[in-house]
What we know:
PolX-like_BBD; 0% helix
Amino acid sequence: MAQGTEGSNVKKEIWYLDSGCSNHMIGNKEWLFDFNDSFRESVKLGDDSNMAVM
């Protein structure tokens, strides 16, 4: 799905999608309705690698 706008400020958001993640992440906490901030160090991805939480 895509949406085009003309003549307005467009803010790009980057999403990392991986159905095997230990947690789901988003760059804007206000978009979440069930936020759990206890996971602060790293997340485990679907390929069993770990990624640091920033």
